[in-house]
Amino acid sequence: AEDGYDLWLRYRAVEAEAQARYRPLAAAIVSEGRSDTIDAATQELRRGLGGMLGQAPATAARVTGDGAIVIGTPAGSPIVARLRLPLSGLGHEGFLIRSVTIDGRRATVIAANSDIGLLYGAFRYLQRIQLRQPVDAIDLSDKPKLDVRVLNHWDNLDRYVERGYSGESLWDWQKLPRFRDPRYTDYARANASIGINGVVLTNVNANADILRPEWLEKVKILAETFRPYGIRVYLTARFSAPIELGGMKTADPLDPAVRAWWKARTDEIYRVIPDFGGFLVKANSEGQPGPGDYKRTHADGANMLADAVKPHGGIVMWRAFVYEPHNPEDRHKQAYTDFVPLDGKFADNVLVQVKNGAIDFQPREPFHPIFGAMPRTPLMMEFQITKEYLGFATHLAYLGTMWEEVLESDTGRPRAGRTVADVLETRVRPGALTGMAGVANIGTDRNWSGSQFDQANWYAFGRMAWNPDSKAQAIAADWTRMTWGAGPAIDDAVTGMMMRSREAVVDYMTPLGLGHLMATGHHYGPAPWVSDLARPEWNPVYYHKADQGGIGFDRTKTGSDAVSQYAPSVAARYGSVDRVPEELLLWFHHVPWSHRMASGRTLWDELIVRYDRGVGEVAAMQARWDTLRDKVDPGRWAEVRDFLAIQHDEATWWRDASIAYFQSVSKLPLPAGHAAPA
Ligand code: GCU
Q1: Which of the listed residues 160, 204, 286 should we mutate to test ligand 1's pocket, taking the one with most ligand atoms within 8 A of CB?
Q2: What is the ipTM of this complex?
């Protein structure tokens, strides 16, 4: 029975007519040159073609008939070298797939400059068949637009996953290093299929234990398993590790003994894992130690670690997600205040990792003002794939649309039209790094991600990290076909549901620019009324500021002036109550309940319309899903049906609780036409 384990790599048999078309083009696999990566590519082709075409092509050493798939690099394969293909622009990870003639025989070549390019090419070739696209007369090449495409696992060593809703951590530390769970390989295959080339194994809040020698022996096995798939392993580095592991009195990044400790520990890591990727660090944020404890800057801290990994080719991803307790400055402003003055002060092998918005992975936030504001610092995006604030595993919320919205945002810096995606893709100097991180939604659940539809967010993240200019709609369409099977009814229903799903969540949780109204701690369900937490910026009332006069956070000049951190053109738009997109109105403005909206309704009435619309959209998804009852397998179908029912209950809960609370503040009547609370 289907349970979702195969993700988008299901490789079920294609229709007979399509088999007849594809089989003659995939009669044999010819590969020259041997490596674990080439083996992985060949195996994947055999697995995929075997499944889809009903027979796995034989592997051969030479081209002896029509229909061979030739796979190789010019360095490893004389056949490929003789074809003199234009590979020079494809870099280390790109690939080319082309229909060619070899000794009079029709063949398809998958070529690259390196073995990993071949694996990516193999997955792309298979994807074309999954999507029923032609593979004859083919001529395509592709390469990633970003260098570091990395998952951040918020996994603790006891296998608890922070903000994880899909079971335990995949990393079975207790059985490592002896036992290599075969699932690690399937995980690597899935990642390679979408171009992910790094994984941070440990939580940003983890303790320092992972850096102990006995743990590194376990990490080594994971690194070995992932290596053929082009995936490097990274670890989080707790800034106070020299104290906790080294018995030192300080972790001051300018203290020579501290620096020496990190160097020695890093050398040790590289002795065990020669291609170790480097460190991810959360410092001076939410109670984590950091250079600020010693009155040093984030650059001082990052550069110390960068020095340690530099001789080995490693990198440091230093997070900009910082805000302090008892800092009266709007939390929205604090990261920018701390980091922008450090522009140009980070070592070459440091990337500053910035969340998409300035608060925290809300259903909708404007783009983070740091993007565009640090032109001399490589910035990488941090998206959250796991749905901490979007209904955990059960609510259907496709995040591709949210990420596209952020990536397309015009930073206005240094000029109009320069988007967040441009900032990510443009090297700040020749050879500088680029990247994107996604907080993983992967665990031990059979379906990996907690729900069938959450797999789409893992998939979409990989595609957007490979190419930040990708379109959410196209990604959803590809994923739908690969995951649910071909057919126009499925395509339309599933992709249609996905494309509107995130806006539905925005509507029933945090419409019109509201944010951070979730219950405390676990962040599940509504709690806009909470006001008694010790740290003011953790209270929902801090964010909506509703009173009888109105609602919203004034971030203009009359308020916190966070808008001034954006480029003047962007600030002018966000800062004007008339020009700000309505979707962000209450993010930037405190307006009276009677404020006139574009619809002609008052803000109060509009708010209620949005809540109702969100619930209605979930009902519409349920109705659409019902039409697929006989078109998808019963196991997965029933899971989605039940999860949508949960989502409908909880969307209703969000709406009713939010309206009841805001009504207790606004003291306004419910508009006509609003459904009575369930
Ligand atoms: C959020 C999340 C935390 C996480 C933090 C971070 O605040 O709730 O669990 O540690 O983000 O990104 O560091």
Answers
A1: 286
A2: 0.99
**Contact yes or no for 440/458 (Cβ under 8 A):** yes
Going by pLDDT thresholds of 50, 70 and 90, the confidence category of residue 325 is confident
| Domains parsed from the chain with CATH numbers | 16-142 (3.30.379.10), 162-473 (3.20.20.80), 509-553+590-666 (3.90.1330.10)
Higher confidence at residue 676 or residue 284? 284
Distance 13 CA to ligand 1 centre (A): 42
What's the gap in Å between 121 CA and the centre of ligand 1?
Answer: 36
Whether residue 17 lies in the annotated active site:
no
Relative to the CA of 355, which ligand 1 atom is closest?
12
User: CA quadruple 387, 391, 397, 401: dihedral positive or negative?
Assistant: negative
Rounded-to-integer distance, Cα 400 and Cα 480, Å? 13
Distance, in Å, from the CA atom of 67 to the CA atom of 85, rounded to the nearest integer, reads 19
Render pLDDT for 610-666 as a digit per residue (tens, 0 to 9): 999 999 999 999 999 999 999 999 999 999 999 999 999 999 999 999 999 999 999
pLDDT digits over 150-176, tens only?
999 999 999 999 999 999 999 999 999
- Ligand 1: distance of its center to the CA of 607 in Å? 28
Confirm whether 217 is a catalytic residue: no
As a whole number, mean pLDDT of residues 93-100 equals: 98
Q: Whose CA is nearest to atom 1 of ligand 1?
A: 360
Q: Report long-range pairs for 94-97 (Cβ below 8 Å, ≥24 apart).
A: 94/120, 94/141, 94/142, 94/143, 94/144, 95/120, 95/121, 95/124, 95/141, 95/142, 95/143, 96/121, 96/140, 96/141, 97/121, 97/124, 97/125, 97/138, 97/139, 97/140, 97/141
Among 375, 370, 341, 338, which Cα is nearest to 357's? Answer: 370
Neighbour tally for 521: CB within 10 Å:
9
Q: Which residues of 530-552 are buried (b: 16+ CB within 10 A; e: fewer)?
A: beeeeeebbbbbbbbebeeebbb
- Ligand 1 contacts (CB < 6 A) are 162-163, 204-205, 282, 286, 321, 360, 388
What is the Å distance from ligand 1's center to 166 Cα?
Answer: 17
* Ligand 1 atom with least separation from CA of 285: 13
How much distance in Å is there from the Cα of 555 to the middle of ligand 1? Answer: 23
User: Among all chains, which residue has been given the structure tokens 């003789």?
Assistant: 82
For the CA of 439, the closest atom of ligand 1 is 12
Q: Which of 204, 354, 522, 537 to mutate to test the pocket of ligand 1 (most atoms within 8 A of CB)?
A: 204
Judge contact between 74 and 86, C-beta under 8 A: no
Q: How far is the CA of 216 from the centre of ligand 1 (A)?
A: 25
Q: Whose Cα sits closest to atom 12 in ligand 1?
A: 321
- Measured CA to CA in angstroms, residue 673 lies from 488, 617, 669, 676 at distances of 36, 17, 12, 9
Atom of ligand 1 nearest to the CA of 384: 12
pLDDT tens column, 596-610: 999 999 999 999 999
Q: Is 650 designated active site?
A: no
Catalytic residue among 329, 360, 425, 491: 360
Please report the DSSP string for 257-287 in residue order. HHHHHHHHHHHHHHHH-TT--EEEE--SSTT
Average pLDDT score over residue span 206-229: 98
Q: What is the pLDDT of residue 1?
A: 80
The reported pLDDT for the residue numbered 287 is 93
pLDDT at 15: 96
pLDDT at 558: 98
Ligand 1 atom nearest residue 382's Cα:
12
* Interval 186-216: pLDDT, tens: 999 999 999 999 999 999 999 999 999 999 9
